[in-house]
Amino acid sequence: MTSPRPPCWRRNAWNIFPSSPASGERRPLSSPLGMRRGDRLPPVFAGGQKQSRRKTESGSSGCGSTGPGLMCDINSDSQPMPRPSNGYRDRWQNPWRHASRGDSAPEGMTLIELLVGLALLGMVLLLVANVFITNIHLVRAGTERVLLDEEARRILGRLTADIQSISLPGNGGIPLQGEDRVSAGDEAPGDMDTIRFSTILSSHQAPAFGKRGRLAYVLTRAPNERVGTLWRILLLSSPDGEQVERRLLLSERVRALNFRYFSHQRWYRAWQEATLPQGVEITLVLQGKSRFAGSKSYRTFVRIPLR
């Protein structure tokens, strides 16, 4: 017959009571700090049994052993206590870790996270705005280039028609005069050539001013300006010797105007001969209104019929 086991005491500062309750009696355990009523206790507090790792001198363990260095747990039996499952691993290692999670306030964004989010949102909005503005400028530039093409077609068409109507003057003068001019100033270099020639007047002008007149194309530009004004100047002579000048504004966006004269397999930048050249090459440069349109050059060659 074995002798009754002496009561063992758990060496714990928060739960000290005998480990051998009466048969059939269930001892209430004090809840750990931070836990509420109804919370599920980890196995170490729910009556689970933990076998002492310290052994006696004889090599046995448990509350039934004798000898120095004896340790036993609450309600300890001779059976070893099972290890907790994976779901309770964190609570087994630290029972206080999740004890007060239900009472804590929900976590929000910190000030740094909020500032970083606003900065990223601002960058995205800036990229979208840049793409939108660039598309608007591209549409405007395309529209302006179409307008430049129409204006250049109109100017070159008028020049072609007038040059093809050159006639020899009746008084034996020079039929065509071409001056090679360059604009002054380093900020706005460009050709500003001038051409003057005799032409046959239309039927509604001939009765009052005779059959012939003098026609000139002149480009005027202020110093250090990028664009100039192209004028079509018609000089008429009345029967009584009075000179009448009629100006027609062709364009205010001409950046350069250049004439070259072809005769006998050679090109000339100016023409002061008594005969007519075989043809005239016209180079017209127009400047767009916006900085996205830029400038555009147009070139054509006009053949002069033999007189």
Count all strands and give the number: 8
Task: Give the oligomeric state.
Answer: single chain
Please report the number of helical segments: 3
Cα shape: elongated
Number of domains: 2
Radius of gyration over C-alpha positions, nearest whole angstrom: 53 Å
User: Largest sheet, if any?
Assistant: 8 strands, antiparallel
Spans where pLDDT lies below 50 across 5 or more residues: 8-18, 45-76
- β-strand amount: 15-25%
Average pLDDT for all residues: 73
* SSE arrangement, N to C: HHEEHEEEEEE
Query: From the helix content, strand content and strand pairing, which structural class follows?
Result: alpha+beta
Q: State the helical fraction.
A: 10-25%
Terminal CA distance reads: 152 Å
Structure in words:
About 20% of the residues lie in helices and about 25% in strands. The protein has three helices and eight strands, in the order ααββαββββββ. Strands 1, 2, 3, 4, 5, 6, 7 and 8 form an eight-stranded antiparallel sheet that branches. Strand 4 and strand 5 (about 245-265) form a beta hairpin. The chain is elongated, with a radius of gyration of 53 Å. About 15% of the residues are buried. Mean pLDDT is about 75; it is low at about 10-20 and about 45-75.
Topology:
Blueprint: H1 89-93, H2 111-164, E1 176-179, E2 194-200, H3 206-209, E3 212-220, E4 228-237, E5 243-263, E6 266-268, E7 279-287, E8 295-303
Antiparallel strand pairs: 1-2, 2-3, 3-4, 4-5, 5-6, 5-7, 7-8
Summed up:
21% of the residues lie in helices and 23% in strands. It is an alpha+beta fold. A hairpin with a 2-residue loop joins strand 5 and strand 6 (266-268).
